[in-house]
Amino acid sequence: MTSTMLRSRLENRWNSLKYLDSNSKIDLITMLTQSLKDTEKQKKISASEFYGIWGDDGMDDDEFIEALRAERAFNQDIVEL
Q1: Angle CA(67)–CA(50)–CA(73) in degrees, nearest 5?
Q2: What are the counts of helices (DSSP H) followed by strands (DSSP E) for the chain?
Q3: What is the largest CA-CA distance in the chain?
């Protein structure tokens, strides 16, 4: 997102928030500050950690499709493609 678009969105939000009373603004600041602290504590996860999670059970494509179809439950008939 470009900085101009971001700035515009922030200004729109500010226009909604600027009329809040002081206590509400302080509460909002507290919540925003806490969200920043929580974000810093989160562990970064790499997509490579999910490599191989599906597993290879040795089925070829046709066997996998048939197994998948056998597990589906519909209220309508399955249409062959």
Answers
A1: 25
A2: 3, 0
A3: 65
pLDDT in tens, 22-67: 999 999 999 999 888 876 666 777 777 777 666 666 777 888 888 8
Query: What's the CA gap between 24 and 18, in Å, rounded?
Result: 10
Q: Measured between alpha carbons, how far is residue 44 from residues 28, 33, 40, 47, 79 in Å?
A: 26, 20, 9, 10, 43
Question: Which strand (E) or helix (H) includes residue 12?
Answer: helix 3-17
DSSP single-letter state for residue 46: -
Residue pair 22/14 in contact (Cβ under 8 Å)? The answer is no
